[in-house]
Amino acid sequence: MRLFWELAKLSFQRQLTYRAATLAGLATNFFFGILRASVLMGLYGARPEVAGISLAGAVTYTGLTQAVIAFLSFFGWSEVMNSVYSGEIGSDLLKPMNFFTFWLAKDLGRAVANFFTRGLTIMLAYALVFDITWPSTVVQWLALGLAIVLSWLLSFSWRFLVNLTAFWTPNAYGIIRLAFTLSWFLTGFLMPLRFFPKWAVQFAYLTPFPHTVNTVTEVYLGLVTGPALVGALLGQLLWILVLIGAGQLVLRAGVRRLVIQGG
Predict the structure, then answer these.
(1) What percent of the chain has pLDDT over 90?
(2) 178-195, pLDDT tens digit by residue?
(3) Distance CA 185, CA 240 (A)
(4) Where are the beta strands (DSSP E) in the chain?
């Protein structure tokens, strides 16, 4: 356990060294967040509410979705794939730690750093520009914290699984790009899933994607309460277990066919 936290700590410190990249990413996320908020305000017009989401809630949604981009590595993550192609996976598999846990620790440090430097910062900046909403009860704050942690675990489990395709192809970049692009439509990142037709929402929930971004935003906005809230959190947990299990099976199959320098 100590090794896990040391790896997470080193990854956290490493992420903080990229100050210029962090500032550039923060400015970009905030700029596009303002554009998205402006579009939604135009779409709402004089209507105070659409699909149960108030105008203030819709604007807050744009801030939340921009805030989680770096936290969840939403536009791409290929570190495990790179370790396969570089041959570093050989030494990684020999470390006194499960391969999945090793990368989980590294991603934890990265995610926590981005949560504070880009996630919270964007929400505070949004509060200065827009009249956004905030969770109103202790239960809502606690549920939000749990939903955020589970969304990261779910995101990592998915990213890890997709990266393992590198064992079977000499260039998995196309597969990874396709997987991430697909997730943008189904997570509720581009638009709240409540705005979609019922059949599209039902289809989305056949996948793990809505349990990342959409669940976090609905918990934050108080759109799910009581049994629905418990169900949303359990849905996250269930998909985490499914993806971790699938990842372990695929990893075992990949390691069996792994060849490094003919060995």
Answers:
(1) 43
(2) 888 888 889 988 888 998
(3) 20
(4) 49-50, 53-54
Say what the alpha-carbon torsion angle 139, 144, 149, 150 is, to the nearest 10 degrees.
90
Is 263 part of a structural domain of the chain?
no
The number of folded domains in the chain is: 1
62-71 pLDDT tens trace: 999 999 988 9
Asked whether residue 109 carries a pLDDT value surpassing 50, the answer given is yes
Displacement of CA 99 from its chain's centroid (Å): 20
Question: Rounded distance, CA 132 to CA 142, Å?
Answer: 19
CA-to-CA distance for 106 and 5, rounded, in angstroms? Answer: 9
262 in a structural domain: no
The number of angstroms, rounded, from the C-alpha of 146 to the middle of its chain's C-alpha atoms is 14
DSSP-assigned states of every residue in 181-202: HHHHHHTTSSS-GGGS-HHHHH
Confidence of residue 260 (pLDDT cuts 50, 70, 90): low
Find all residues with CB under 8 Å of 186, minimum gap 6, and list them.
204, 207, 209, 210
Is 37 inside any structural domain? yes
Q: 219: which 2 tokens? A: 């918990």
pTM of the model: 0.91
Which residue is associated with the tokens 């079977």? 168
Q: Look at 74 and 105; give whichever has higher pLDDT.
A: 105
Closest CA to 69 of 204, 213, 172: 213
Residue 144: the pLDDT is: 95
The structure tokens listed for 1 are 């356990």
Residue 20's domain comprises 2-256
CB 113 within 8 A of CB 16: yes
Task: Assess if residue 261 is contained within a domain.
Answer: no
pLDDT interval class at 141 (50, 70, 90)? very high
